[in-house]
Amino acid sequence: MGGTVAPRSSVRIFTGRKLQTCSYDSCQMLYQMTKLSHYLALNETKVHIHFSKSDLKTVLGDVDSVQLILSETAKKNATVVFTYQTGDEIQLVETNNYITPIPNISIVANQTKAVSINITSTGVGHLNLGINSSSDQFIGLSQQFVRITIVHSSALVVINSIIGWIYFVAWSISFYPQVFENWRRKSVVGLNFDFLLYNITGFLVYGFFNVGMYWVDNVKDEYMSQHPRGINPVQLNDVIFTLHAVFVTIITIIQCFIYDRGSQKISKFCLTLISLAWLFIIVTLFVVIFGDNLISWLQYLYYFSYIKLGVTIIKYIPQAWMNCQRQSTLGWSIGNVLLDFTGGSFSLLQMFLLAYNNEDWSSIFGDPTKFGLGAFSILFDILFMVQHYCLYRGKDPYESLNNYEKEVEAPLLSAVH
């Protein structure tokens, strides 16, 4: 080389193992073609494939049709295989016998735009049907799936929907008999204040959980990243019910300030317990904000749901004990109890019907917390009904012997003097 420069008319390049000379213009053209081919390779149009529906609800033995739709025709022939997911496990073979295995789909270059597939249900349960391919011209295949729910009876689906509306309405209006009772008597004597504090705390934390899960995008993104093929457990009716419950409970608390409340007050035990709960919420909030991702926002909201569960377990105990001490249910609305019992009973009935129709008994016995809380509330409702209709039927509040002695002693002393 010796520092010599090739003239502009020729350039020495490597072709394979040999060093050859080509004209400058030819070499420049070769270079541009190489850049263009590299650019086209990097920016080759990718093909998206998606199902025509994301959810399919069907009855055992039925045959349903779903389409696989390509965003544009493929540039190369390809094969698409189907995946089957139950729980967290994704397989290439359908081992649960929920549907008849679906044969692979052949995609023909520059022709195939959509493919229709038949889904024959052979068992009752839940299944996520997905797709996969070894072809590099497709993208986002792991995100494409259809949720398949196979049930015993379509009639039970309708019945369950009706039952859902019944307990939603029953629970929603169950707050109003107590409000009316307080207004009618112009008194809240007989309504336990510990119960009210537990109730407002429970609905507030449950409201934060529902609103966060339903409306806050960051939280929803966190949930979907942990459950890529899951469904948000919080629906709009959950949010509406909780906000309504907070509103009516606040009205009841306001009544405690404007109506006769006697000598009633919140117990120190209740104040301590609720204070600790809110202190935990505040401290954990600072950890979420300043803790360098030590606790995620989603996990923080789960803490709210745990507090709600704890409150639900203990909130009825003070009212039941107060009724026992007073030997009366005067001031405690039985209408509230009856509507709550109706809502809880229909809720449990729906759980059993859903478990049967979906052949998914783990939804009840696999989640004992949800089932246990529903049954626990119903047991307290039964206790309140026994107190109201059997034990203390028509009784006025019990007066202590000390108070009675003072009331009798006063006129006797006056007569003596």
UniProtKB/TrEMBL annotation:
It comes from Magallana gigas. The lineage of its organism: Eukaryota, Metazoa, Spiralia, Lophotrochozoa, Mollusca. Coiled coil: none annotated. Belongs to the cystinosin family. This is Cystinosin. Its main location: membrane. Transmembrane segments: none annotated. PANTHER family: CYSTINOSIN. It catalyses: L-cystine(out) + H(+)(out) = L-cystine(in) + H(+)(in). The keyword Nucleotide-binding does not apply.
